[in-house]
Amino acid sequence: MIDVHRLRLLLELARRGTITAAAEALAYTPSAVSQQLAALEREAGVPLLERAGRRVALTPAGVVLAGYAESVLAVLEEASAALAATRDSLTGPLRIGAFPSAARVILPPALVALGRDHPGLELMVTELDPVDVPDALRGGALDVALTFVYDYVPAAPDPALDTEPLLEEIVYLATPDATRASIADCRDAGWIAGSPGTLCHTLVLRACEANGFTPRIRHHADDFGTVLALVAAGQGVSLIPQLGIADAPAEVALTPLAARRRSSIACRRGTRDHPAIAAFVAAVRESGPETRGTGARGSWY
């Protein structure tokens, strides 16, 4: 019988290419991963791995088994969701991830509704950038997450995750005055971007490159309130989506762009119908009208 936990390790190795990276993703030691994969080879009865320089590659048999692993894990998640649906009430932890502006604007009314309707749920929120969401969901650190992509920074679908659209927002060019009406007008300006590696940092790079220049990034800030304060102080220009412009200082000129930020709800494949996750999705969608009242309006799906 093939061990399911070892299948998960094989799948992470297939995604990441090194035993060290797979171990970090699932909070194992590299030696433990090696031992578990060796045991999996014995269970399978065929070689699953081969060395390729410093990396480990899957054999043809390993590729076949990794392909089945994705479906096996999804079916097990579906089974867990079906069992949860037989219970009379929702109990236990629900680990929720959200990017900062969603954690500030979208989540609070949804959490109030969940706590009222399902007091047995232990709601646990982690704020994180969308680039970290897939690993957190696949590794089990999160059950469900609010995430997003920008038009300038699209993301390929992840076969391990289910997503559904939530909100589309206009992206604004934020400047200290109204004399710069486009990204191209800001070629010589200093820029304010998110921390390197975040999606908001990549947005600034890609948007400026699409307009024919490399931005001169002067400041890094991840909180849109801080970004707006820096813009108001004449420290640079930036790009900010609708959820981030509430209470913008009067000194900041906001020019709507054609670019959009598209938010979605993500969970592991097979868990979408889990009662706790379904309740979370419903609460988030019902909070839409309240969120629209914040002054950060967007188009809800």
TrEMBL record:
Keyword Transcription regulation belongs to the record: yes
Gene3D superfamilies in the cross-refs: Periplasmic binding protein-like II, Winged helix-like DNA-binding domain superfamily/Winged helix DNA-binding domain
CDD domains noted in UniProt: PBP2_LTTR_like_6
Database matches in Pfam families: HTH_1, LysR_substrate
InterPro entries for the chain: LysR_HTH_N, LysR_subst-bd, WH-like_DNA-bd_sf, WH_DNA-bd_sf
GO cellular component: protein-DNA complex
Residue ranges that the Swiss-Prot or TrEMBL entry lists as coiled coil: none
Keyword entries, A-Z: DNA-binding, Transcription, Transcription regulation
Transmembrane segments: none
Similarity comment text for this entry: Belongs to the LysR transcriptional regulatory family.
PANTHER family: LYSR SUBSTRATE-BINDING, TRANSCRIPTIONAL DUAL REGULATOR HCAR-RELATED
Protein name: LysR family transcriptional regulator
Organism this protein belongs to: Trebonia kvetii
